[in-house]
Amino acid sequence: MHLPDKTIERLSQYRRNLLIILAKGKEFIFSHEIAQLLHITPVQVRRDIMLIGYNGTLRRGYDIKELIDLIGIIIDTDEGQNVCIMGLGNFGKAILNYFAGKRPKLKIVAAFDINPEKIGHLYAGVPVLHVDELSAKIISLNISIGIITVPFDKALETANLLVDCGIKGIVNFSSKPLNLPEHVYLEEFDMITSIEKVAYHTKRN
Amino acid sequence: MHLPDKTIERLSQYRRNLLIILAKGKEFIFSHEIAQLLHITPVQVRRDIMLIGYNGTLRRGYDIKELIDLIGIIIDTDEGQNVCIMGLGNFGKAILNYFAGKRPKLKIVAAFDINPEKIGHLYAGVPVLHVDELSAKIISLNISIGIITVPFDKALETANLLVDCGIKGIVNFSSKPLNLPEHVYLEEFDMITSIEKVAYHTKRN
DNA sequence: CAATAATTGTTAATAAGATAACAACAAAAG
DNA sequence: CTTTTGTTGTTATCTTATTAACAATTATTG
Ligand SMILES: NC(=O)c1ccc[n+]([C@@H]2O[C@H](COP(=O)([O-])OP(=O)(O)OC[C@H]3O[C@@H](n4cnc5c(N)ncnc54)[C@H](O)[C@@H]3O)[C@@H](O)[C@H]2O)c1
Ligand SMILES: NC(=O)c1ccc[n+]([C@@H]2O[C@H](COP(=O)([O-])OP(=O)(O)OC[C@H]3O[C@@H](n4cnc5c(N)ncnc54)[C@H](O)[C@@H]3O)[C@@H](O)[C@H]2O)c1
Q1: How many CB atoms neighbour CB A12 within 10 A?
Q2: Residue A39 CB coordination number (10 Å)
Q3: Protein-proximal nucleotides of chain C (any atom < 7 Å from a CB)
Q4: pLDDT tens series, chain B, 205 aa
Q5: Is residue B114 packed enough to be buried (19+ CB in 10 Å), middle (13-18) or exposed (0-12)?
Q6: Do B77 and A203 touch (CB under 8 A)?
Q7: A204 contact residues in B (CB cutoff 8 A)
Q8: Which of A48, A159, B31, B106 could form a disulfide with B45 if both were Cys (CB 3.0 to 4.6 A apart)?
Q9: Is A153 in the B-facing interface, judged by CB distances under 8 Å?
Q10: Which domains can be identified in chain B, with CATH numbers?
């Protein structure tokens, strides 16, 4: 089954929001309710759900629990994947706090840094280790995804290190665009782009 | 002139990278060099540049300085826009550090929080103020864009506050999706989506 | 029980975005 | 001076993404 990239992004958002709604005790949800949550159209929601092969109930909507589980089957692996974070500065800490315990199948199991004051402690329940240990720990902790939040001028060497250690995917939040080998999946984000987009769109008026 | 949304995003990225290259002393650049930086195709670059009406020189490429200036005319206003950040936690601090002095036409001029220990100080050169002052300061500091980094359960009231104060655009990094009036431009980002996208794409192999 | 309203699932149509193709031409090489 | 090479600018094509349209069907209303 091939799924469009944008559908994957929305599935992730659906799940995050459905989990919250489920926790409030709601059992079924209509496409237009999901749509309203994410400022998209109900058709879009129904189409995505169609693509993953799920069927709702006419006039009752979608079973929230079932939908969440199915999204899990699509995004997650059975055993789950382990994640590490490179660079425990403000940004890295924000990510750890935010992520902690949120996704059972996607665990941040270690943070790597070079600052001796940070190493050896736990942060948000996650051990902070020295970068020298990376190679060994990626294997022993079975880490397949790395998040890069080191300073600009350390991003390249950090990425190379991860690649050499056999990482499968990287999320790069450092502002240095990376050029990775094809077999490593890369996702980059820079908030300056977000903010400048808003700046552009608020120019008029 | 109408520009596609994706082109705006890329223009922002072009500029960020061109500024770095300019600082290194390079004066001209080819489309394929820009393309390589951002993992896109040279055609894409040329097309974007065409859309903004800039002309390079055949076989010399684009004048980096001119290109940067033109992108500035498109994204920025002449006087610049002022930005505030709501919630100075780890995430807010990371943004302030990162942004500080980086974009002359897009200044973060205040951070708002409710924690008395934070208020009254400077962080990364930016004054930390109490949320109660928001309404007055948005006017006196001429703030038109707000960045939300308050906790999940405070995001809605914070957004409403900004809207009531006449904000023109919001970047929402809190994990709570917002429903804003049409005249306020909204940009949202959640890193869980980025990470889960990587998780999905690294499932196979 | 008939009529109406609401909702899904799916195909068809449209729109947005990316890539390919190539003419034009300037610089470099021969 | 002629040919080759490299690069831009632009149109045409292809691909991906979104929206519209509507049949099917179930619940609700009268
Ligand atoms: N993409 C975005 O939107 C965005 C936003 C904010 C910051 N950033 C970028 O993220 C990065 C981190 O920002 P921050 O505010 O957390 O910075 P920071 O300085 O607070 O943290 C960086 C951390 O990395 C550690 N470090 C340095 N070299 C290292 C190495 N070789 N290996 C491992 N760890 C190393 C440092 O000890 C420090 O703890 C910067 O590049 C910044 O520009 C990006
Ligand atoms: N979108 C993402 O990718 C992403 C990533 C990390 C964190 N987050 C979210 O960002 C938010 C902030 O994360 P953090 O790690 O910085 O949290 P934090 O707890 O460190 O910081 C929150 C700050 O907001 C302040 N605050 C609380 N209520 C406020 C109010 N009403 N007005 C103004 N300030 C107020 C607090 O005093 C604190 O300083 C959270 O909602 C978190 O879930 C999102």
Answers
A1: 23
A2: 12
A3: 6-11, 16-21, 24-27
A4: 899 999 999 999 999 999 999 999 999 999 999 999 999 999 999 999 999 999 999 989 999 999 999 999 999 999 999 999 999 999 999 999 999 889 999 999 999 999 999 999 999 999 999 999 999 999 999 999 999 999 999 999 999 999 999 999 999 999 999 999 999 999 999 999 999 999 999 997 5
A5: middle
A6: yes
A7: none
A8: B31
A9: no
A10: 5-75 (1.10.10.10), 81-193 (3.40.50.720)
The answer for residues whose C-beta is within 8 angstroms of residue A25's C-beta and 6 or more apart is: none
Using the 8-state DSSP alphabet, how is residue B4 labeled? Answer: -
Tell me the residues of chain A between 86 and 125 that have a Cβ less than 8 Å away from chain B: 89-91, 93-95, 97-99, 102-103, 105-106
- Interatomic CA distance for residues A167 and A162, integer angstroms: 6
Q: Do A202 and B90 touch (CB under 8 A)?
A: no
What pTM did the predictor assign?
Answer: 0.96
Q: How far is residue A149 CA from its own chain's centroid?
A: 14
CA A169 – CA A33 distance, rounded (Å)? 33
What's the first-to-final CA gap in chain A, in angstroms? Answer: 45
